[in-house]
Amino acid sequence: MALDTDVMKTFCDLVETGSFSRAAEANFVSQSAVSQQLAKLERQFSTQLMDRGGGMVSPTSAGQALYKGAKDIVRRHEQLIGEIRSVADSVRGILRVGTIYSVGFYLLDPYVRTFLKRHPEVNLHVSYTNWHQIYASIISGDMDLGVVACGEKRRSVEIIPLASEELVAVFSPDHELAEREVIDPASLSGENFVAFEANIPTRRHIDRMLKRAKIEVNIVMEFDNNELLKRAIMVGSGVGILPRDNVEREVAYGDLACARLAGRGNEWTRPVGIVRRRGESLTPAGSMFLGLLRSQGSVEGLQSR
What we know:
The chain is of the alpha/beta class. It contains 11 helices and 12 strands.
């Protein structure tokens, strides 16, 4: 039975993201292509590999078994390609970059596309995952670079400042503050609040900012990703605070409203940084990608996109 490594990678991304749209974006294909690839795999193995329902997908027992083997196949295939190419050209090879969803899909994507256009000879693999998996993969050597928000210092990693993302208050379109362009942060006091889960660095960062501003909110829901958080705000479950670029599309479509938060000496931003293993030299491809991010990743450049 022949197995296509591109299909294996797409399947792994589908398992990891639980979303056809995210797996499609990660592999620069359509959602229909992801569905067709999954159907092909299920025909090959004569069994169901993913359970579909509730807007998310999750692997069956057979799918989990395939995922474990496919992940290893994809990793070894990429390593082999990188090793062979690097013999012929020092700029060639494999580059593994990890990023959290809210940074990868909204901020990092243009730079990934630019890099691929400039260096098609580099096998760039971008993993969209959670922050603690990025740290673990950087430390273990499974990733070369990570791009995270609100980076936390650790002995074995180095965090290189990249940019600051503006944070805005986000509302449902019929909220009483929805028509305001700028609000006093104190206006959020007592509001029902939809937040990231407590262990997520962005949540801890926002909690500290609210505490410094002496603002108390009523947390009614917690999510591990910004897409579910936005949906909860859309239906009026509460207000939230999110990076501006994460909600620009929904605001333009009228599904959400947002307002800037007046500073008063408390700048409402979240830092974005590049994570790398401390004391370890990057490959030429890694150095070039890092250089691209640092040369274009200014605060003004990223916020004006």
